Amino acid sequence: MPEEKLQPQQGRRSGYDSYTGIWGNPYYEQEFAEITNRVFGYMVFRKGLALVERMARDGWVHSTPYDGKPYDETWKLVPDEWDHEHCWVCQYSIGDGDGDGCWVNRENQFLCDACYGHYIHDSGPGADQALSGQDA
Fold first, then answer.
1. Is 28 helix (H, G, I), strand (E, B) or coil?
2. How many Å apart are CA 31 and CA 2, to the nearest integer?
């Protein structure tokens, strides 16, 4: 399949270049099996607002993408703080700095182009449920 159909908005192709050991590996197959909504839309990842804890817990400052809902004073809203996501299957870091293209469903589960191509678009287990190129 031509790459243009997989990347209608022309972000940088995301995912690992070497698939050796990924496809057919029980770990990755299980990660894919946990995706219940297999209708994905394409997007180019961009930085966004994040809620960041004001005080560290367990030595870490936790953060989460801001979803527009009210939050309490233990959090602060920080622009451009949410700068990457991870592919649900292979954990590839999908980032804004490189303009990575990716696929996302309504549950906010992200797939890199490589995993989308294998598991959804090609003859993977979710191929019959794919709806590429439309908003998820």
1. helix
2. 27
